[in-house]
Design a protein that fits this description.
CATH class: Alpha Beta
Largest sheet: 5 strands, antiparallel
Shape: globular
CATH topology: NADH Oxidase
Radius of gyration: 19 Å
Helix content: 40-55%
Bound molecules: flavin mononucleotide
Structural class: alpha+beta
Number of domains: 1
Distance between the termini: 14 Å
Number of helices: 7
Number of strands: 5
Strand content: 5-15%
Length: about 220
């Protein structure tokens, strides 16, 4: 696959089929993940790949509860506000995120990256993104989720037998599966709205009204 196709179309693919992902496909995702940079090349990472149905079911219960907690706190009123201002993008994200919460137990593979000696957890995100791009290149959809470790980190550690006393800390749960829907280019406001030239607030001299990569070319 063209690198730019992977970059432009690796989306939050929450709605996935329950079909298992072949082991060689998962191996390529993990082997690509560990090629990523890490601070000082310390590679203080571990990846727990969960396919056991009972374990995913247990994580699913925790995920649903965590999502409900998010909706009751940081996300409170978001759905109503999005409806009131006709913001269909946010409405779609929320309904897709609710779908994942309700169906987490049916996801065929969840990968939980762990870090240690990395205060803000940022050292593993290049590896996480490598993993997601390698999944995309093989037709596997992924979603980077964080609600679980925000609301249920201790319970998740217990379910998976993580030696948290040795400093291992979960930073995400990546759901993986073959998409129910189609791939598409992520819609975003034009890039010039978030880029400054030389000094903060100075707009660049160019504008890019449409994505520079598209299926039509
Ligand atoms: C750090 C981070 C945390 C996220 N946490 C969640 C999450 O807990 N649950 C979820 O459904 N999506 C989560 N997402 C996915 C975002 O909602 C998604 O990337 C965003 O809506 C853009 O979607 P798109 O790439 O399909 O356009 C997270 C994404 C990032 C980068």
């Amino acid at each position: 696959m063209d690198t730019f196709e992977a970059l432009y179309t690796t989306r939050a693919m929450r709605r996935v089929k329950p079909d298992p992902i072949p082991e060689d496909v998962v191996q390529r995702m993990l082997d690509a993940a560990i090629r990523a940079p890490s601070p000082g090349n310390t590679q203080q990472w571990r990846f727990v790949t969960v396919t056991d149905r009972d374990l995913i079911g247990e994580l699913g219960v925790l995920y649903q509860r965590s999502w409900e907690q998010l909706e009751a706190t940081a996300y409170a009123g978001r759905r109503e506000q999005a409806e009131a201002r006709g913001d269909t993008v946010t409405q779609r994200v929320l309904s897709s995120a609710s779908w994942l919460a309700a169906n987490f137990g049916q996801v065929p593979l969840v990968i939980l990256p762990y870090v240690r000696n990395d205060p803000d957890g940022s050292g593993i995100y290049p590896a996480v993104w490598n993993l997601m791009l390698a999944a995309r290149a093989q037709g596997v959809g992924t979603t980077l989720t964080t609600v679980l470790h925000h609301f249920a980190a201790t319970e998740v550690g217990e379910v998976l037998g993580v030696p948290t006393d040795k400093g291992w800390r979960n930073v995400a749960a990546i759901t993986c599966g073959y998409p129910l829907g189609k791939w598409g280019v992520a819609a975003r406001p034009p890039v010039e709205q978030v880029v400054y030239a030389d000094r903060w607030g100075e707009p660049p001299e160019w504008s890019i009204p449409e994505p520079l990569w598209s299926y039509e070319g």
